[in-house]
Predict the structure.
Amino acid sequence: MAQGNHLIAGAWRDGAARFSSSPASGAPASYAQGDADLVDAACQAAEEAFWSYSATSREQRAAFLEAIAEEIDARGAEITATGVAETGLPAARLEGERGRTTGQLRLFATHIRDGAYLDCRHDPALPDRAPLPRPDIRMMQRPLGPVAIFGASNFPLAFSTAGGDTASALAAGCPVVVKGHEAHPGTAELVAEAILAAILRCGLHPGTFSLVHGGSHEVGGALVRHPLIQAVGFTGSLGAGRALFNLCAQRPVPIPFFGELGSVNPMFLLPGALAARAQSMAEGWAASLTMGAGQFCTNPGLLIALESPETEAFVQAASQALAKVGSQTMLTDGVAQAFRDGRDRVAKSAGVREVMTSVCDLRTATPYLYATSGAAWLANQELAEEVFGPLGLIVKVQSLDEMLSVAGSLQGQLTATLQMEESDTDLARQLMPILERKAGRLLTNGFPTGVEVCDAMIHGGPYPASTNFGATSVGTLAIRRFLRPVSYQNMPQALLPADLV
Ligand code: NAP
């Protein structure tokens, strides 16, 4: 059972102040609040751990990741019960998310055992080359050092304490300091308990992992500014992400900030697809938009379609499907309020028309659908901003050229989707070069909310979808964020890392 304390280098520690959790159900509990001293203790321990942890073999780290997965599964029932109470997410969703979390840990174990991620290269010496001989040069990826991870509110397991960011950093050989999210401190602590059990089982340095609870902005700021932290993984809002990114850039020694921020995930409904399957597309879209109360960064909140009777049929079918979705509990009171603020911003915008509205209050959300014209959307950049929750905006364009203009005006996105039939191929071909510059993942005839954890997945995109569009926070490529290439020139074998020999 969670005790309400921080885990700093193997010890459970209280803080100078405490905060109260705000669960969706059940009684609030008291949690130690983080502060700069606790952050410092965790970072010092992580730096100390780095020397031994970065020198572990790939096999040792793989066994550690698997041990974490086993320890999480062993606490499965308690994690689900605590997570349900704290977040209001259904038990089945949290159980699925636990499977995704342990699956990610095991996937990274397999990935590092294989070793290809090290990208080892060797240019053998050419002593007889004229006019100058070539030295022997080898290269491989090395772990960066201690990494700070911010747990996300909307994935209390898969993007949190032992989520993809933590799994990829640990796999790379980097100790991790997690800043827990206030929305699920008990869940975070139970997962931290599982990681500690794995550390003890595997005989690793206790500074390899620490959890500092939040409770004030001081914690996040102190963490990203700490001189021993070498990189940051973050999932959350554009505002917070940008503030933390700026802090990283302003450090005397700037560090990479891998922020996965907002996205409206545009979906283009092409004429052939609308003519062939408006009804089923509308039902599929409504389900994707409202899944998990719309609290997914891949939520397809923006639709673009040519003004036509087929588009009207889609809108009608979508409205009917949305009207059947009841009220859902949101992750926190703050997320619910932010949803209503976003809804009001859209509703009051010039040229926006209500299509399907409902009533929600307190910590709940119900679906909303609005419509606007291509011209109104192009004239108002605020309409391109994410509303985190089950809100859809359909942009009805007058011509295919206007559709291309809307595509060209999009900000960076995590995903962009084309709903198309073969007859739409020419138009899709015109959209593709534009969308490739806008999004990290392009889909046809599907919905973006499911993010497969695999080798080819990119979950990231040009700013503001993420702060580093060369990176992904999902899939095995996520490990590259926490590695740095090092060349070894004319190095005797005795001094080379084991993986290069
Ligand atoms: P958030 O406000 O972005 O907070 C994320 C983390 O950053 C928390 O740990 C927060 O902790 C910390 N933080 C926030 N502002 C900070 C600052 N100025 N300095 C230092 N640390 C700071 O996200 P959230 O609380 O999860 O949800 C709020 C909104 O974020 C939602 O309504 C939604 O719009 C958006 N969101 C988007 C995604 C996505 O994937 N796109 C995911 C989740 C949320 P403290 O509050 O303890 O400082």
Notes: Residues 8-20+30-125+144-261+466-481 form a domain with the Aldehyde Dehydrogenase; Chain A, domain 1 fold (CATH 3.40.605.10). The two ends are 46 Å apart (CA to CA). Residues 150, 152-154, 179, 181-182, 214, 217, 220-221, 235-237, 240, 243-244, 260-262, 297, 334-335, 338, 388 surround NAP (CB under 6 Å). The chain has two domains: 8-20+30-125+144-261+466-481, 266-444.
